[in-house]
Amino acid sequence: MNKNNFAKHPPMGWNSYDYYDTTVNEAQVRSNAEYMASHLKEYGWEYVVVDIQWYAHGAGSQRAQFQYIPFSTLETDEFSRLLPDPERFPSSAGGKGFAPLAEYIHSLGLKFGIHIMRGVPRIAAHLHTPVKGTDVTADQIADPSSICGWNPDMYGVRCTPEGQAYYDSLLELYASWGVDFIKCDDICNTNLYPNNPFSGRHEIEMLSRAIRTCGRPIVLSLSPGPALIDKAWHYETHANMWRITDDFWDDWRLLKDMFHRCELWQSHVSQGCWPDCDMLPLGKLGKGFGQERTTNFTPEEQKTMMTLWCMFGSPMMIGAELTLLDEQTLALLTNHEVLHLLSPDCGARQVSLDDCSAVWVSRDFRTGSVCAALFNLADETAAVTADLREVLETAESCKARSAAPCAPIRSCEDDGGIEAPCTLRDLWTGETGKSDGCILGAELPAHGCVLWQICP
């Protein structure tokens, strides 16, 4: 398992991609950070992440034809490292990089993150620019046979001491800027190569080594997915989070499929090691893609997504433009009791899954409390039930994500036996009810859920 302890809790924050695509600028990042500090920070939201192509001139200007303009002008330094485009990030001018922006975000009590692509800029290889700390140039560490299938900016880096020196120089730079979080793309699953989808393995290791020696705690997030379950040990050793899906958007089919992905990865969630369900496509999305829109998820689907992500223990990155959040979406993101399920003191497991329903249980090892979530995966209103005995037996088999003290489970067994009705408190609404003896059940709308704390 990852020993760096940089992400004791699943990272929570905002990422610019779902709303801005490649076009986000400094003013927009600052305004989202200010909103987070005022409205979300007290609930655990803290990372502000600038996503892809912050270094590209003219990014988004040919969006109808290209998401990533082929061989566009990229801002680089004398050591083959990408720098922010000063037109979009004016405080970076004069070689300051992201240091001024990071300093501002830190002043708000938040943390700063950036997206990077695996590898070395192609333009640096073509121009034979130096690699800091070596006597070689970028073309000598670049592997032209290792490329990304959807972004034209980079070549892979060879597994050599000079290649490691390049990654060391990157992290030296990022640490000097005050970066707290790196999302590295085209590395978790190099899906251009179906016969070798883990071809970026050595670059994961290079990044991990560079972080360990840079002198600053920096969370490492790997994209895109789907992560390879047979490589779980490698992700857990070298990264803090890794995507278990390709890009996740506001499509019910993708959300329903996530129950299967969470089932596959549920035994690999632990403190510092967080399988990642991807961003939360809530609120306003898509402006940088050419059409601003409100999420396609229904209110019930939004609640289902939030409940599953929290029960499972996924990192939580909001994709919306924060300054346009409505009250209903803000309420979803600021429920202390639901967000507590992300705690490393908790552990969760799926109880059951079929095409029409799912049941999950979460156990708080510090307090002994148990929560159960019932999900209606059908396309119409339906009753979902679970056997309380099975729920509690599954809760007993849960493992804490951290070395939390192990309090015994508090359940209705402590108050009259399992056959007696339990008090059920809905963590989303605060309403209370009773179980039907040893049966938990609810009539749920299409794609909806209920999240109960089982009270003794």
Automatic annotation (TrEMBL):
Alpha galactosidase C-terminal domain span: 357-454
Protein name from the UniProt record: Alpha-galactosidase
Keyword annotations from UniProtKB, A to Z: Disulfide bond, Glycosidase, Hydrolase, Signal
Phylogenetic classification of the source organism: Bacteria, Bacillati, Bacillota, Clostridia, Lachnospirales
Matching InterPro entries: Aldolase_TIM (IPR013785), GH (IPR017853), Glyco_hydro_27 (IPR002241), Glyco_hydro_b (IPR013780), Melibiase_C (IPR041233)
Enzyme Commission number(s): 3.2.1.22
Pfam families reported for this sequence: Melibiase_2, Melibiase_C
Biological source species: Candidatus Fusicatenibacter intestinigallinarum
Catalytic activity: Hydrolysis of terminal, non-reducing alpha-D-galactose residues in alpha-D-galactosides, including galactose oligosaccharides, galactomannans and galactolipids
Domain of life (superkingdom): Bacteria
GO biological process: carbohydrate metabolic process
Family membership: Belongs to the glycosyl hydrolase 27 family.
UniProt-recorded Gene Ontology molecular function terms: alpha-galactosidase activity
